[in-house]
Design brief:
194 residues, 7-stranded antiparallel sheet, globular
Length: 194
Amino acid sequence: MSDAAAAAATQQPAAVDRLAQAEKQAAVVLKTEPHACFGCGEINEAGLHLELHLEPGCCWTELVIPDRFQGWEGVVHGGVLSTILDEVMSWSLIERDSWGVTARLSVDFKQPVFVGRRVRAVGRVVEDRRRIVATAGSILDAETGTELVAAQGTFVIVNAARKRELEARYGDLASARRSGARATDGIPPAVERP
């Protein structure tokens, strides 16, 4: 998300809606072979099942968080919000053809996030220092653009051998994105799971 887009996201609801519509049209929906990740996996029955969208240097998702993820009554559990931010920040690296693991995650809970409320989470790369990548993320109220949660993450880039393993498992998403192909092109077909 560009700085102008990020600034627009904090303005009026109509501007947020126009921005969201434009991003939905420009983004590539991330599709991988089914896997059990709690955040983005399709076969984890207890998971969030996030639909992730890739853009240059950015990953975002939009969802209504169900009440099964509440902590205090009616309020989304902070660990769930942290997981959502970790997902969008980590996949923002992958869009840039870097695969990494979370080394540090710092989360600032600015306002309560209520279950049943539509939110938008955005992660982006803010600094790339060879094997260490700094990211930032936000969870916004999807209607007003108000920032509810902010995060900073530090990721360590995996070595070339591990990157090849991950690309074989999840697909070479960054190359597909840069070539203009759909994110699903070149992804191995779904495998039946017991």
